[in-house]
Design goal:
Length: 415
């Protein structure tokens, strides 16, 4: 695989996650980014690396014009626009990445990939995304994989309402996950299971969570591991009591059949919070050299400041997924065209990217190591361990040397 020339990136969707993606690209790669949305920016920031633009992705002519002059588009728009943007990118030979969890959108994008001159790689966020990379990595560590259980939660730090939940990301995304069938493998057979079912209780580092089926988190992993694993599933982590409350709304009151009304109810009654955290947990078991063994991974990700702006945990964790993929693609460590799955990403290579340190708690060397404190929390920006500098990571602001930069503010060694 050869490096890919990418000098200009279009990020569609200037919301919280899209803005974080643009700033993360600028901060860690010093690459020119156009951050576009259908609404004009409230104020021009005068940022020489992140340029603002007005683009309506539902206008084919405007979208085509916006893609011109860019080698890659990262789509951070709502999931229902994913296939439209991917088709426009494919027609112009522009590399396409997105963050969608929607199964039908991914299926449509995959259908576009045959004969494409550029990469079409959806599902590059957290779940699907990083969790699929981790799942593929753990699967490869066993001679005979028996079970693989993947769990992710985007949680408010203080769940004080009856729903035990505040919105830390898209309401529409949450509803979509809670309303669509979910892929799994049970006793070696690919199956479809229902959202909100499969309720279980987990104790992770002494803290109690519940987990239940939600749609889209596995991405293409079921297909990839078919015939190689007995049991595979993905579930969302929440605080105990949340699932029953949502089951009442979706099924008891049948608001799953009236999603517009459900959205109004949730938007009216459930607050949004920027006081959040992300919990990632994976457990795999199987035979290794004839002995039954188990491996687990856990990481907790918290918010932090990026380019002078406070970012939530889910914004940073999601953006790190797609920006890490961009780096691997740009440096030739992923296929240069066609459909690419998340599990094709070598997880250790992802962790070694400039933003991969966000997920350092999932490293093979981390299980059982609580030296970083109770939660394996990581400050942002990611920093290498003391005495073990990591290529491409910026030192703390007060410790940067003049020699670390080239004239004009560019760091040496930028990919």
């Amino acid at each position: 695989m050869n490096p890919i020339l990418i000098r200009n990136i279009l990020v569609l969707g200037a919301g919280k996650v899209g803005g974080t993606v643009a700033d993360m690209l600028a901060e860690y790669h010093r690459i020119a980014v156009t951050l576009a949305d259908r609404e004009p920016p409230r104020r021009e920031l005068g940022d020489r690396l992140v340029r603002r633009a007005v683009v309506d992705a539902e206008d084919d002519t405007g979208l085509a014009a916006a893609l011109e002059g860019h080698e890659m588009v990262i789509n951070a728009l709502p999931f229902h626009l994913a296939a439209r943007v991917a088709a426009a990118a494919r027609a112009r030979g522009v590399h396409y990445l997105d963050l969608t969890e929607d199964v039908s959108a991914t299926r449509a994008i995959r259908a576009l990939a045959d004969g494409a001159d550029a990469v079409l790689m959806p599902q590059c966020g957290l779940a699907p995304g990083v969790i699929g990379m981790l799942g593929g990595h753990l699967a490869g560590r066993f001679d005979d994989l028996q079970s693989l259980h993947l769990r992710v939660g985007a949680l408010s730090r203080h769940a004080t309402n009856r729903l035990r939940y505040d919105f830390t990301w898209s309401i529409d995304g949450v509803i979509n996950q809670y309303c669509h069938p979910c892929a799994a493998i049970v006793q070696g057979r690919p199956v479809t299971v229902q959202p909100l079912e499969g309720l279980e209780t987990l104790v992770l580092d002494g803290e109690c969570f519940e987990a239940f089926n939600t749609s889209g988190g596995l991405g293409t992993l079921c297909e990839t591991l078919a015939g190689q694993v007995r049991d595979l599933d993905y579930k969302t982590l929440r605080y105990p009591g949340h699932r029953d409350a949502m089951d009442l709304l979706l099924n008891g009151l049948r608001l799953g059949e009236r999603r517009d009304l459900l959205r109004q109810v949730l938007d009216h009654a459930v607050p949004h919070s920027r006081e959040d955290r992300v919990v990632v947990f994976a457990s795999a078991s199987g035979l290794r050299e004839g002995r039954l063994e188990q491996e687990t991974r856990i990481a907790r990700i918290h918010g932090g400041r990026l380019r002078g702006v406070d970012r939530t945990a889910i914004e940073l964790a999601t953006a790190a997924g797609v920006v890490g993929v961009f780096e691997l693609l740009r440096t030739g460590r992923l296929p240069a065209r066609g459909f690419v799955r998340q599990e094709q990403v070598a997880f250790d290579a992802f962790l070694a990217t400039r933003v991969g340190r966000c997920y350092a708690g999932l490293d093979d060397s981390s299980p059982g190591d609580d030296r970083a404190g109770p939660t394996l929390a990581h400050a942002w920006p990611p920093q290498a361990d003391a005495g073990q500098p990591q290529r491409g990571l910026r030192p703390p602001r007060g410790q940067r040397s003049r020699e670390a930069r080239e004239p004009g503010g560019f760091r040496r060694g930028a990919a």
